[in-house]
Design a protein that fits this description.
It is a single chain. By secondary structure, the chain is mostly helical. It has one domain. The chain contains four helices and no strands. The protein is elongated, with a radius of gyration of 16 Å. It starts with a helix and ends with a helix. The model has no long low-confidence stretch (mean pLDDT 80).
């Protein structure tokens, strides 16, 4: 399921039609989620060495550290 489909499902009750144009709210939700994912990925690449990432922290712990450091 795509991000757009997930947001559509959460924001509306009718089934998602891939030919239907997304609403502005759905498009904004996808944009925010993609920006967050890119920021987190860049943070992982810049701040942490790959060995440290996999040896010291779980994915969930890294996400919480990122959110705390970026006040999200």
């Amino acid at each position: 399921m795509t991000l757009l489909e997930k947001f559509h499902q959460w924001l509306k009750t009718e089934p998602f039609n891939s030919k239907e144009r997304p609403t502005l709210r759905e498009a904004q939700c996808v944009f925010i989620a993609e920006e967050f994912a890119i920021g987190f990925a860049e943070w992982l690449l810049i701040i942490y060495n790959e060995d440290i990432i996999y040896d010291a922290y779980s994915k969930e712990e890294l996400l919480e550290i990122y959110k705390k450091e970026n006040e999200l």
